[in-house]
Amino acid sequence: MAKTIIVSNRLPISLRHRNGKFEFKPSAGGLATGLDSIYKSGENIWIGWPGNTVDDAEQRAEIILELHELKMAPVFLSKKDVEQFYEGFSNETLWPAFHYFTQYMVYNPDHWEAYVRVNQKFCDAIVKKADPDDTIWVHDYQLMLLPQMLREILPDATIAFFQHIPFPSYEIIRMIPWRRELLEGVCGADLIGFHTYDDMRHFLSAVGRITGMSGESGYIQAENRIINVDSFPMGIDYHKFAKQAKSRKTQNIVKDFREKVGDQKLLLTIDRLDYSKGIPQRIHVFDQLLKQHKELRGKVSMIMIVVPSRDRVQSYKELKEEIDLLVGRINSEYSTLDWVPVHYFYRSFPFEELSAFYSMSDIALVTPLRDGMNLVCKEFVASKNDEKGVLILSEMAGASKELQDAILVNPNDRQGVVDAIYQALSMDEEEQKLRISAMQESLKKYDVFQWVKVFMDRIDHVKAKQAELTSKDVDAKVMNEIQSSFKKAKSPIFFLDYDGTLTGFKANPQDAIPDAELKSLIKELSGKAQVVIISGRDKDTLGKWFKGQQIDMIAEHGVWVHRKDHSLDWELYAEVDDSWKEDIRSVMEYYVLRTPGAFIEEKHHSLVWHYRKVESGLGDLRMRELFSHLKYMARGHNLQVLEGNMVLEIKRPDINKGRAANSLMKGHEFDFILAIGDDWTDEDTFKAMPKNAYSIRVGYAYTQANYNIKSVKQVRQLLHKLAES
Ligand code: GDG
To answer: Cα separation of 595 and 613, whole Å?
Structure first.
């Protein structure tokens, strides 16, 4: 049976070296708790770095055995790997970039090389354990290249990726020299998750702009499959926090702590040591509060827990020194013999003590400058069994999208945060209860188990969607079937669209000239079948490009036809009334003036507004505006507005490729019909085809055609196969 493999940089344990022996300490982090039921069941397994370097082969073997018992497998990293991959590229390039701290970004090619090397190490370790149809769920920014590396070796595996930290705007991503590799790496996955909608939309925009892959409604169209990108806000193990806060052990600690600090309002802050958390800014805020509200001195204290983290990275070392200095300064300025403004702890606490801090504090001050989600604020709310307490939360934390009943603040607005604390200190109990209970309801419902469930369900959904599309794929078997049916045929006909079908798109449409290979392919085919090029292009271009070929051509979606055995050059296939054009052209021109790079193409029966060369984003925006403008006008003229590949076309609805193909076939018997196209205009052709025809759409989009084919390259492969039959 297929199994699930969880992969993260760190395993949910810590490996410690003590008295010449190794010890494992399980981590009770949110992710580990949420995924507990997954990796501990059946044959499932968690693969990652155990968090310490081990060079001795014997010790490694011992660790592998012990971890095996815990349903884990280690990826061993060398000291150099840790320095360059983890501390280097992950924490000195990606972390600052993704949290908008571009001033801390390091661009070091050696670090990048190490990042590639270590992602490969992970890949090798996984491949050793994985079966071809397993589900592999990769976590976080340290492993962005892994999904694609895995895809190459395990093409049929189900691969998912979740990023726990923010995904920034394209403006930041473009600064990273290895941006394309990173995005293509992640796009090896079938499902890509982020905490918030903003993260996912930034990701989609970066993928579109940097890799050129198009996307719509959270789906990226990769070459041979669709990829779903979605938002999955992570929750906590709500009941664990609620239960612990109620426990006798924690309540005894609360009593003890409370006695020690005396009758104080307590303001709690808990973070890993990180510049993204806004710790120094918070001390400045507290200082300002005590300056402005002298009456609060002696009555309010801040409990500040900073958990040591990444302290070998230079910017973290400096941050630690800054915090030490600021705490020293504020305490020396305001302390009295029986009151200290800031109780500062640079260490981590056991769970029951952490719970006691949550439980006894009146206010949680969670003011990161950027945070993917932030679980501390959720844990504080879950620990408030009496529903008393106030959460002050930064708008820059992903959690702020859910916890609208917190007092939301901009952490850069110092006075705003001071006022928020003052508001929190004066908030009556009734309001506190209303706010806390509303947040509790939501946190109970969307807990970490629900998060895992929704994510895993979504993986199934994407796979089902992919299967639906690939069930129609022109694979080797289908190619052989088409070939043998073609071989038997006495009067075969091919309807071939041009752009996006026989040749790829070019920024300038006039540059998409048929290459030598295509010309000779068409020549060979036309010796064996009736070949019809059926395109939206104007007749002059088609005529010039295929001059001398023994083929039929349908231009402008069926306005014009050129028959190979007729003496007439081009024959008008549809009566055209173009009195509508003037009105529409003036509107389109207005949008050209406002949109550098856009241009109008006039065809016999239609007007086309092109935006392929417009700055991405702006082009879409203007197209939408023009679309609604034209739709309104189209009604009066009985016209049809259609969205194509970077074009908007307005035309008469009764002129289409399907109608033209039908007229061309009328009165003839064909025993083999093949129609290939790539966009909505070809759907008319597909619809018009008789049941026994082979209709194929290029790309894995929904279609009326019987089949989908991957790309132009595969179309040519198929046609070569038929030409050689
Ligand atoms: C990343 C993203 C995202 C803290 N002090 C102690 C302690 N903790 C625990 C808390 C909490 C966890 O550490 C911190 O989690 P956060 O979510 O707040 O922050 P990051 O570590 O930066 O996590 C973040 C998260 O991934 C999940 O996707 O929310 O945005 O940056 O669970 O309880 N635990 C114990 N003692 C302590 O002293 N036992």
So the answer is: 10
First-to-last C-alpha distance (Å) of the chain: 42
> CA-CA distance, 383 to 391, in Å (whole number)?
12
* pTM (two decimals): 0.85
Report the Cα 197 to chain-centroid distance in Å. Answer: 10
Which residues are catalytic, by number?
497
Residue at token pair 């702009």: 209
Ligand 1 geometric centre to CA of 532 (Å):
63
Burial 252-289 (b: 16+ CB within 10 A, else e): ebbeebeeeeeebebbbbbbbbbbbbbbebbbebbbeb
Give the span between the Cα atoms of 183 and 131, in whole angstroms.
25
Nearest to 534 by CA among 553, 548, 519, 561: 553
Q: What is the dihedral of CA 451, 457, 459, 465, to 10 degrees?
A: -140
Report the separation in Å between the CA atom of 402 and the middle of ligand 1, taken as the mean of its atom positions: 17
CA dihedral 500, 181, 451, 228 (to 10 degrees): 0
User: Which residue ranges have their beta carbon within 6 Å of ligand 1?
Assistant: 30, 164-165, 234, 270, 272, 305, 307, 348-349, 351, 354, 371-376, 379
State how far the Cα of 559 lies from the Cα of 671, in Å rounded to an integer: 26
Distance CA 624, CA 383 (A): 48
CA of 360 to the centre of ligand 1 (A): 19
Q: What is 387-413 written as a DSSP string?
A: ---EEEEETTBGGGGT-TTSEEE-TT-
Q: How far is CA 722 from the centre of its chain?
A: 40
Which protein residue's CA is at the shortest distance from atom 26 of ligand 1?
164
Beta bridge partners of 230: 193
pLDDT band at 28 (very low <50, low <70, confident <90, very high): low
Phi-psi region of 51 (alpha: psi -120 to 50; beta: other; left: phi over 0): left
Q: Which single residue is written with the structure tokens 């004066």?
A: 426
Atom of ligand 1 nearest to the CA of 375: 17
Q: So what's the pLDDT on residue 567?
A: 63
Pair of tokens at residue 17: 């070296």
pLDDT per position as a tens digit, 218-238? 999 887 789 999 999 999 999
CA–CA separation, 391 vs 372, rounded Å?
Answer: 18
54: tokens are 């081990």
User: How far from 359 is each of 251, 262, 397, CA to CA, in Å?
Assistant: 8, 16, 22
